[in-house]
Amino acid sequence: MHEHTPDTSPSRGGSRSLRARRWSFSLFASLALLATAGCDDDETETPPPPPAAPKYTANIKRTSYGIPHITANDYGSLGFGQGYAFAQDHVCTLADQILKVRSERARFLGQGPGNTYVASDLAYLSMGLLDRAAAAFPTVSEEMQAMLTGYAAGYNKYLADTAPAARPAECANAPWVRPITPVELLAYNTDLTLIAGVNALALTIAAAMPPTVGAQSFDAKQAALRPQMPTLEDLQRLRRADFGSNGWAIGAERTDNGKGMVMANPHFPWEGELRLWESQLTVPGQLNVYGVGLMGVPAVLIGFNENVAWTHTFSSGQRMTMYQLQLVPGKPTVYKYGNEERAMTSKTFTILVKLAEGSVTNYTQTMYFSHYGPIIAIPDSAAPGFPAGTLGWNTQTVLTLRDGNIDNTKFLDQFHGMNKAKNLAEFKDVYATQQGLPWVNTMYADKEGKAWYTDATPTPNLTKDAYTKWLTEATTGTNPIAYGIYSALGFVLLNGSDPANEWQVEPGSRSPGLVPFAKVPKLDRNDFVFNANDSYWLSNPEAPLTGFSPLHGLEKVPQSPRTRMNVITLTESGPNAASGPDHKFSLDELKTAVFSNRSSMEELVRASVVERCAGKTTITYQNTAVDISQACTLLKDWNGRYDTGAKGAFVFREFLGAYSGPNLLNAGQLFATPFDPANPITTPNTLVPAPAQGDDPVLVKLAQAVYTINRSGVALDKTLGEVQFTARAGANIPLQGGMGREGITNVVSYGVARTTLFDYAEPHLPTYNATTLLSRTGYPINNGSSFVMAMQFTDAGPTGNAVLTYGQSGDPTSAHYADQTRLFSQKQWRPILFTAAQISGDANLVETNVSGG
Fold first, then answer.
1. What is the pLDDT of residue 40?
2. Which tens digit of pLDDT belongs to each residue from 88-134?
3. Distance (Å, whole) CA 791 – CA 802
């Protein structure tokens, strides 16, 4: 039976403030005087030894909006302070995630809907993250070992200081909120590296059973706990929202002072474990870095120090490959590999499951592995167009996978090195030596005005023949399974019984089979580099990157409307350009551009749609006469910006939402001029012409939009802020921004990309458009622009502004749960406080000293 018992928590000793330390000393002194008052003068007692100094001591200064600036004299104490401050804001979320990697969700929370907690526990046991973390911990640098150990101790100190009933409601008095160990924290950090791979397919591992086992009956109690195969919607949860980012790094040629600028705009969930948390980390003389990190990560992942700044965007490349194995007839756990037969390995795991009536029982299941990795089973609907049973584990085939991050032990040292880098050479050296970046592109700029881009994420190193064959199959449909998996889920599927599809080993890679850093896409510039989740190809359109494996991403393909808007903003010139008439960004111009809410799709087609409306009142859609006159007027009067006060914006959204599939990316129903790789930003373009006879298909789509809006019950003339909102702190807060498919850089959307236990999402049913997710109340938002930062280096050091759109705290009762959401709603920024003078001058400063260990 698997049951993990964490180490005991650190001592409750130590003090949280100077005042508390003085009170403790005064009490001790008074007691000592009382104890000696009755003694004879000639009697001598040996005084008790002074209390031991705490192992960790950190200073936490929280400024406006609850941002912690943490200072300590060593890395262990720095981690302690960060872990303590983080727990104050998000104790429940990290407790849940540690429960997940401990494989104890079913033990404390029951089997879960569809036995998902049972499946999760089995999947994480099969991944062996705790064992991997225990083996990896001694290989992590001493500084990061100290940070991990201190962070766990600081989190545990918060638990010791806080009564269980005083924790946030989601985990108040919950028995599963317990002290954590540094190894468990490292295991969870490893799990974060797997987001783009096996993490998203975890439930498919527990669903895989050989057909002979599946045909046999478990006893009734065990059968009731057997994990179910996830649905296609479950597997697509990371693709349901605009899960991405924009990132700009602007060099000396394009800034008003010749120094670097960085704009960070990650689009991440506003709920659950993928929220970002802001802090400043300082060890005097060694480290001084500001920015955000994911939950439970003892480092800054996006931010800056005195010399360098960087941001990230989600890479469009591949972190893993799926394989279909040909099975030996009559042997469902033996597969063909070249001219040989290979037997799968297996491990049997037993977990504890809490039943509905409160008792706890054992559940046992055997998990299987190929030499690539775990065996998985996914629904046939994930690759439509071929017979049922093709993707499950049958007598002929089975699926397995290999993930490039499963042994990524360099993740934390990668970011620690970036946090400390003083110049571009040092920054690049971290990438070359650690190669621990898990799934993101990097855009970098520094005080010297240099800009740099790389997609240095772990990428399977296939031969050219292997990846060329896959790309042909996946994009032409010559292999319906590979085509279906790529179309529906975005993953690579290869023939695992052919050794030609093995990852190739080359010198210089972090792990055998990955592309070495020397061969990944990268680009140095003095003007700018950017990314908006398309591939590396157009990181700067003046210097396209070509000749790389398609597993890094695709070249010479249509770019998303959001990528096109990013490039337009960065490259346009003239008096009305985002960078002004001098074509050089000031910090104010950069901030204005970020929240301009321009739409590349609006700029391409709205005027033409309005022209086509002339003289038209009623259009037939689904045998219904639809009055489009009000919609036409609203589109005509709209200024084209997705601002909260805009009328017509959401009508245009539903107009575009009437076009499904790839129609927005190339010529077809909407555009007449096709994509041209030689002009990738300006094409496709031009609204399709009206036919000589019959209904105008463009106006039919507009009628469809009006019909859809009318069905929802939302009035056509609502402002965007009235229909696009987030429910926080007991109110609907109106939101600016739009969907990526509309060509807006400032993305807000709805998604379910989280694995926390708490269902934060607003009800979102019924929806009337599967593309836009229009509901009866409009567009509830829980995803998109998260940490938005605009910063610039100056002679006096780095300066900038930011907004963490969902606030610093995850506790709905906190003053910092929605304060920044209101800023974001109004396009307001807050200053980034970085220097000691800026921090000490903050009117809302609250200072705490925390110690223990």
1. 46
2. 999 999 999 999 999 999 999 999 988 999 999 999 999 999 999 99
3. 8
Confidence band (pLDDT; 50, 70, 90) for 6?
Answer: very low
- Residue 64: inside a domain, yes or no? yes
Q: What is the pLDDT of residues 419-473, one digit of tens each?
A: 999 999 999 999 999 999 999 999 999 999 999 999 999 999 999 999 999 999 9
Arithmetic mean of pLDDT over the chain: 92
Domain check: are 223 and 104 in the same one? yes
Name every residue whose Cβ is closer than 8 Å to that of residue 405 and which is 6 or more positions away in sequence: 190, 193, 194, 196, 197, 319, 320, 438, 439, 458
77 and 157 part of one domain: yes
Q: Are 343 and 516 in contact (CB under 8 A)?
A: no
Among 594, 628, 656, residue at a domain's last position: 594
The string of DSSP letters for 656-696 reads: HHTS-GGGGTSBTTTEEEPP-TTSTTT-SEEEPPPPSSS--
C-alpha neighbours within 13 Å on the C-beta side of residue 264: 32
My answer on whether 374 and 325 are in the same domain is yes
**Structure-block tokens of residue 661:** 């599939």
Residue 213 lies in a domain: yes
Residue 258, CB half-sphere, CA atoms under 13 Å: how many?
2
In DSSP terms, 728 is beta-bridged to: 731
The token pair at 822 is: 């209101």
Strands (E), 142-257: 244-250
* Residue whose entry in the numeric block shows the structure tokens 């638990």: 159
Q: Same domain, yes or no, for 256 and 311?
A: yes
CATH number of the domain to which 366 belongs: 2.30.120.10
pLDDT, tens only, 782-828: 999 999 999 999 999 999 999 999 999 999 999 999 999 999 999 99
Angstrom distances, CA of residue 583 to CA of 129, 255, 530: 50, 8, 17
- CA dihedral sign of residues 95, 100, 106, 109: positive
Q: What is the pLDDT of residue 217?
A: 55
376 close to 25: Cβ distance less than 8 angstroms:
no
Same domain for 92 and 205? yes
Q: State the Cα–Cα distance between residues 413 and 116, nearest whole angstrom.
A: 33
Residue with tokens 């920024």: 829
Number of domains comprising the chain? 4
Inter-residue contact 616 to 628 (CB < 8 Å):
yes
Q: Could you give the CA distance from residue 289 to residue 426 in angstroms, rounded to a whole number?
A: 15
Residue 704 tokens, joined:
């469809």
Q: What is the model's pLDDT at position 44? A: 64
Q: Which tokens is 54 given?
A: 């705490």
DSSP code per residue over 476-543: H-SSHHHHHHHHHH---EEETTSGGGSPPP-TT-SSTTBPPGGGS-EEEESSEEEESSS-GGGSSTTS
Q: Print the domain residue range for 396.
A: 320-403+462-501
pLDDT at 235 over 90: no
- Tell me the pTM: 0.93
For residues 610 and 704, membership in a common domain is answered with: yes
